[in-house]
Every structure is written in C-alpha cells, then in structure tokens.
C-alpha cells in the first residue's frame, strides 16, 4: 500500500505538517560555487592548523558537501515553485519532493511532499 502523498501545483501555499510528530525538519538546496569555495578555504585552514585531516579514513581526498540544509519553521507559509520534483540530494536523487520558496527570505529549497499540507 502506497503512503498518501499530497500533490501540489505551482503557486499554491503550504506549511509544514505538524501532525506527523517530527519536532524538526530541514529542507535542502544545492551549494553554489561561492559556498563550495568557502568550504574548501576553511578546510585548508583547518588542515594547516591541525584541526582536520586532508583525507578520509580510506586515504582519499575529502569532498565538500553538496547540499545546504535549511531549518523549516512550523509557523511560516511557503509557496510551491514546482509541485513534483525528483530533487538532487547528495550524489543521488530523492523522489516525492517539491521545490518551495520561503515568503520571508525568498530562498528556494526542496522538501518532501509528505511533510507538507495546504495552508
């Protein structure tokens, strides 16, 4: 039996579904080039100061994160930009998502549709 995942259209307003019992949920978006460059600069500095290793446990170079996670506020309303998206997350894709825009900050990010309800 498939879970009941709502369907949204662009321009509709949604909010986080607080009935699911999740105390905190985060949306995500891809890191842009300047954020990736800033991460590498900070990592180089940490390696020089001895706070981090330049390689992982397998001896390979450490890669930068691909996503930025965004705290979703339960009292805010978000606008749907794209109602059905297979969203990039990490080095793969996650189905059952939508692209939303925060009305206060204007930032666009992905969320799973099952965690949203109509506002």
**Total count of strands:** 7
Indicate the CATH class of the largest domain: Mainly Beta
Helix content: 10-25%
Give a short account of the largest sheet.
5 strands, antiparallel
The appropriate CATH architecture of the largest domain is: Roll
Side by side, the strands of the main sheet go 6-5-4-1-7
Mean pLDDT: 90
Explained architecture:
By secondary structure, this protein is mainly beta. It has 2 domains: 1-30 and 67-119, SH3 type barrels (Roll); 32-65, no CATH class. The chain is 13% helix and 38% strand. The chain is built from 1 helix and 7 strands. The chain has one helix spanning 33-48, and strands spanning 13-16, 26-30, 67-71, 78-89, 92-102, 108-112, 116-118. A 5-stranded antiparallel β-sheet has the order 6-5-4-1-7, with no helix packed on it. The chain has a two-stranded antiparallel ribbon with strand order 2-3. A hairpin with a 5-residue loop joins β5 and β6. The chain starts with 12 loop residues before the first strand and ends with a strand. The model has no long low-confidence stretch (mean pLDDT 90).
